[in-house]
Amino acid sequence: MYRRGGTTIEFLMALLISCMLLPIVYTSIRLLINHEYFSQNAQDEIALYQLRQILLLADNISITSDGLSGTLYDEEIRVVCKNKHLYLQPGTQIFITDVEDGYFSNEYNLYYFNYLRGNKWMKRVLIND
């Protein structure tokens, strides 16, 4: 004789295990939904820190019409802001993205990167002159 289906005890055990796992699954899903990634400002600071490390090794830094230029290991480098990105040339090492507008300035022996993102102008120090 073949047994079809399950007994009431098997059903209740499956229901009990499901009920015990439900709070764990619910909490895990809530944490994933509410998890905040790095804010855009934190990402910008990390990227500009990396750029500062490169610029500290550079010589003859000056502001040009299209960006910031200097010499790194006897090679001309430029930091430019166009096509909504801040990147280092030669090559295309991108540091900041989604920039609507940006320019470089020099005030009190400090080089700044001024950029517009989301109708808000930001001003960050890049390097000391």
Secondary-structure-derived class: alpha+beta
Taking strands numbered 1, 2, ... along the chain, how are they ordered across the largest sheet?
1-2-3-4-5
Largest sheet: 5 strands, antiparallel
- Total of helices: 2
Radius of gyration: 27 Å
Helix content: 25-40%
Q: If you average the pLDDT, what whole number results?
A: 85
Number of strands: 8
What coarse outline follows from CA principal-axis ratios? rod-shaped
Describe the structure.
This protein has helices spanning 8-34, 40-57; strands at residues 59-64, 67-72, 75-82, 85-89, 93-97, 101-107, 110-117, 120-128. Helix content is 35%, strand content 42%. The protein has 129 residues and is α+β, with helices and mostly antiparallel strands. The chain starts with 7 loop residues before the first helix and ends with a strand. A hairpin with a 2-residue loop joins strand 7 (110-117) and strand 8. The strands form 2 sheets. It has a 5-stranded antiparallel beta sheet with strand order 1-2-3-4-5, with helices on one face. The mean pLDDT is 85.
Describe the structure in brief.
By secondary structure, the protein is an alpha+beta fold. Helix content is about 35%, strand content about 40%.
